[in-house]
Amino acid sequence: MAAGAMASADRHPTWSLSYRERSLLPSSGSLTAYLLRLMSIKQTNLCLSADVLTSAELIDLAETLGDEICILKTHCDIVTDWTERTALALKEIARRKYFLIFEDRKFADIGGTVQKQYTSGYHRIATWSDITNAHILPGPAIVTALHKAAMDTIVKYNTKVHTEISADRTIPKVKDEEEQDPSNGDVAVESPHPEDNDDRRLSVTAADRKHSVVSVSTTISTRTESITTLPELDLTADDHSKLDTDAMLQRLGPIPFLRSLLLLAEMSSEGHLLTPEYSRRCVEIARDNRCFVMGFIAQRSLNTQPDDNFLTMTPGCQLPPPEEEGKKLGDGLGQQYNTPRRLIYDQGCDVIIVGRGILNAKDRRETTSRYRKEGWAAYLDRIGKKNG
Predict the structure, then answer these.
(1) Which of 207, 222, 237 is the C-terminal boundary of a domain?
(2) In sequence order, what are the beta bridge partners of 162?
(3) Do 346 and 291 lie in a common domain?
(4) 3-state SS class at 30
């Protein structure tokens, strides 16, 4: 048994359950269940860490490699030309290629501050990122604060404001003035301008002393289809044999407009200060916030109680070149790498996060496929099945 690997008898039940089976557990939140089903259909447990500096390269990575991954991890604050168009492009590709977006923000401040960092400012992370993460250094209130901000964002998304404008172009007579010519236009209606909190202001001004009666009616309606629970899908092994991947993804449906959080319980850098006690506290806080916390950034599965069904996403994954297999890898800056098999099979992790192993490859597409296949094979071996 590999060093640090857990004996089979000591493994939590989630180690032997398939992603599809775990998605049906009552402890799976809606976004977690969606992700697990997506992973099962696409047969990938690979997250691409797209740490690039331009929007063009980020969008190209998403477009080129999106079919191979279940999650795209971003660092929007290192993208030098990030705009709202970047976020919209990523969301469109994610919808078409079926992967979630994970902004690796690592929030670590008091509640009021992280709410603003999450929803406001230049990046407005909550509007486009399905998943984000946080340290628990400030205490459990950071989780509840982010959860409230996420819920506010969801409610706002599902509230539609429709404004209709009509004008009575009858021009009243003005004593001692010449007849006004309606063809010249009597009202200047300025375009809506963005204001704080995304409110819109409509400016209606008179033009050349001419008058019209302007009627503005506003209708507020709500939409709930994007945040309802997932459709009942019995994705059995027989479904896999009868339907192709595209057909099954269509049955799965679009990514729901939901938000989830990962807690940073462990790190892959050498000498990190996240002690075992810190990791245990992360798990306790996650259990108290199951409706929002989907899992952890960690080096091993942290599921121990019977109803635990948290996902573990693990960075520091790298495949060595064929001639260097078995050699300890690192980057000279404290980062230590583990293979997909060690993380998925030996440590019980659920998603491998790969960055430089793909970004620095001569053929990114081929290398991404290699990581996906290695990670999936390790998962199938762990659950003892030929089909996930």
Answers:
(1) 222
(2) 219
(3) yes
(4) helix
- Report the distance separating Cα 73 and Cα 66, nearest Å: 12
Position 2 in a domain: no
Does 196 qualify as catalytic in the annotation? no
Contact (Cβ atoms closer than 8 angstroms) between residue 145 and residue 292: no
Please check whether residue 3 lies inside any domain of the structure.
no
Distances from the Cα of 303 to the Cα of 27, 259, 359, 382, angstroms: 12, 21, 31, 15
- What is the reported pLDDT for 191? 36
Catalytic residue among 81, 106, 116, 385: 106
The residue from 60, 77, 109, 152 that is catalytic is 109
Angle between helix axes 30-42 and 245-252 (nearest 10 degrees) is 170
Secondary structure (3-state) at 103 = strand
Beta-carbon contacts of 77 under 8 Å, excluding residues fewer than 6 positions away, are 123
CB atoms within 10 A of CB 40: 24
- Which strand (E) or helix (H) includes residue 326? none
Identify the pLDDT of residue 158.
81
Q: What pLDDT, on a 0 to 100 scale, did the predictor assign at position 336?
A: 59
Kind of pairing between the strands at 311-314 and 193-194 = unpaired
- Looking from the CA of 383 toward its CB, the CA atoms found within 13 Å total 20
- Both 147 and 169 in one domain: the answer is no
Choosing from 168, 197, 222, the residue where a domain stops is: 222
Domain encompassing residue 88: 8-158+228-383
Q: Which of 42, 97, 104, 350 is catalytic?
A: 104
Residue 60 annotated in ligand binding: no
Residues 126, 257 contacting (CB under 8 angstroms): no
Q: Tell whether 237 and 361 lie within a shared domain.
A: yes
Across the chain, which has 388 residues, the per-10-residue mean pLDDT values are 57 95 95 97 98 98 98 98 98 98 98 98 97 97 98 86 54 48 41 41 41 57 50 51 84 96 88 89 98 97 97 93 59 69 97 96 96 98 84
Q: Are 108 and 135 in contact (CB under 8 A)?
A: yes
> What pLDDT was estimated at residue 261?
98
**Same domain for 137 and 238:** yes
- The verdict on 215 and 132 lying in the same domain is no
Q: Is residue 104 annotated as a catalytic residue, yes or no?
A: yes
